[in-house]
Amino acid sequence: MNRREFLRLCQLLGLTLSTHSVLRASKATQRFSDKHSTPVVIIGAGAAGLSAGYLLKQLGIDFKILEASSIHGGRMKHTTEFANFPIPLGAEWIHVEPKILKEIVNDDSVRIDINTRHYDPDVDYVVYEGERLSLREAGFTKESKFINSTWFDFYERYILGSIKSHITYNSIVDAIDYSDDICRVRAKDKVYEASQVIVTIPVKRLQMGAITFNPRLPSKKQKAIEKVRVWSGCKAFIEFSEKFYPVLVEYKMNPETAGQKLYYDAAYGQNTSQNILGLFAVGSAAQPYLGLNDNELVAYILDELDKLFGHNASGSYIKHVFQNWDADPFANGAYVVDHENWRVVRRLGKAVDNRLFFAGDAYTDGDDWSSVHTAARSAKRAVESILENY
Ligand SMILES: Cc1cc2nc3c(=O)[nH]c(=O)nc-3n(C[C@H](O)[C@H](O)[C@H](O)COP(=O)(O)OP(=O)(O)OC[C@H]3O[C@@H](n4cnc5c(N)ncnc54)[C@H](O)[C@@H]3O)c2cc1C
Questions:
Q1: CA distance 230 to 171
Q2: CA dihedral 293, 150, 99, 15 (to 10 degrees)
Q3: Lowest mean pLDDT among 164-173, 243-252, 319-328
Q4: For labelling, which of 211, 228, 258, 291 has a CA lying 20 to 30 Å from the CA of 165?
C-alpha cells in the first residue's frame, strides 16, 4: 500500500491523522522574543519556508529567509506565458480538501477568494493497457484543481505580502554552525546570526552535501537523510489545435518500482478554449524524458501520443513547455517516493538540539509527505516546536 492509498483508507475508516488548529501568539511567544535578540533564520522560500516565515510574522517573532534562487516558490513554480491560464510546472493538485488553504492562512478573519474544483467523478478515466474506468472507480475523486490560479498564486496572494521584505534572494546557504548559543548561517561568504534555524531545502540537496553542519548532524538523522529515496521528476505541457484525449490517462505501473505517469487535460475546468495536455512523470517513468534535448523530447512525446491515441498528435501540435526537476539546481529531483518508510520520514522531521529545525515536504511527522500541504503543515510544526521550549 502506498502513501496515498494508506491516507485514502484512513479517510474511509474515518481516522484523522492529526488535528490542525489556528496558531496564536501566547506567553511563550513573548518569552521567546524577550530572550532572543537575533532572528530565526529560515533557509529556503518554498511552501515550507514561506509558511514558517508567515507564521512567525503573525506571532511577532523576528525572522529572516535566505533563498538560493532569484524567486520564491521553489517547487510551486508556474508560468503565465504559455497559456491564457497559469500553468503549474511543479505542484498542481490539492491532494486534500481545499479548506487546507484556510488552514495555511491561519487567520479566520481572512476570506480566501481562490477558485478550486473537484473532478467530476463520473467522467472518463483511462488506465493505459486497455482498462477504462471512471474517476470514481479509479479513486481520483479527492484531488482538486485550482481554477485560473496555482499553488504559487495562492502563496503570492495570501502569504507573501507580509513577509517579502524578510527574504534575501540569491543567497545559497552552504554552512550552518550550531555549536554555540547563537547559530551562524553562511551564504555567499556572509554570515547571519540566528537564535534558531529552520532548514527547508529539499532533502536531495542535503544528500548532495549542499550544507555543511557543525557539529555534524546526529548519526540517526544523517542516516535517514542518506537512506530516503527521492524520485526524479518532470512535467510537460503541450498545446494542440484539437482535443483528442480524455480527462486523465494513468499508466499502469508499480509505484514501488516505477513511480507514476499521467497524461491529463490540463485545461480541465479552466475558462479557456486552448487545448493543453499535461504530462506528469516521476520515478523511473520520468527517465526517458530527462536526457533528451528539446527537439528529441517533443518528437518522443508526439510519437508516444500517436501510439496511445491512434491519432495524429503531431498533426495538431502547436507548442510545448518542459520542466526537468532533476536539472533544477536547487531541487535536483521531484520528491520523496510515495511508498517510503514513514519511520525514515519521521526521523527527517526531528529537530536537533532545539536549535536546528526542519520543515518541508520531506521533513514531516511521518503521517504524510511530498506535497505542498505537508510542507505547510511541517512549517507549523517547526514553529510550534520552537515555542515549546519557552
Ligand atoms: C513534478 C512535481 C509535481 C508535483 N505535484 C504536486 C501536486 O500536484 N500537489 C502537491 O501538493 N505537491 C506536488 N508536488 C510536490 C510539491 O511541489 C512540494 O512538495 C512542495 O512544493 C515542497 O515545498 P518545500 O518548501 O518543502 O520545498 P521547495 O519548494 O523545494 O523549497 C525549497 C527552497 O529552498 C531553496 N534552496 C535550495 N537550496 C538552498 C540553499 N542551499 N540555500 C538557500 N535556499 C535553498 C530552493 O530554491 C527552494 O526555493 C510536486 C512536485 C513535483 C516536482
A1: 24
A2: 0
A3: 243-252
A4: 211
Q: Which CATH architecture has domain 115-148+231-327?
A: Alpha-Beta Complex (3.90)
- Alpha-carbon distance of 296 to 137, in angstroms, equals 36
pLDDT at 331 > cutoff 90: yes
pLDDT at 7: 56
pLDDT of res. 333:
98
Q: What are the Cα distances from residue 37, in Å, to 5, 61, 180?
A: 46, 10, 15
CATH 3.50.50.60 boundaries in the chain: 3-80+155-227+340-388
pLDDT for 4 beyond 80? no
Cα separation, 33 vs 390, in Å, equals 10
pTM over 0.90: yes
| Paired strand residues for 65 | 42, 167
Domain 3-80+155-227+340-388 grouped into CATH 3.10.20.880: no
Residues with CB under 6 A from ligand 1: 43-49, 66-69, 74-76, 90-93, 95, 171-173, 200-202, 205, 210-211, 233, 235, 325, 330-331, 334-335, 360-361, 370-373, 375
Q: pLDDT (tens digit, 9 = 90+) per residue, 268-277? A: 999 999 999 9
- The segment(s) of the chain belonging to CATH 3.90.660.10 are 115-148+231-327
User: What average pLDDT score do residues 224-232 get?
Assistant: 97
φ, ψ (nearest 5 deg) of residue 78: -140, 170
N residues, the chain = 390
Q: Per the structure block, which three cell numbers stand in for 113?
A: 477568494
- 3-class DSSP assignment, residue 347: helix
> Residue 92 burial (CB < 10 Å; 0-12/13-18/19+)?
buried
Query: What spacing in Å lies between the alpha carbon of 114 and ligand 1's midpoint?
Result: 21
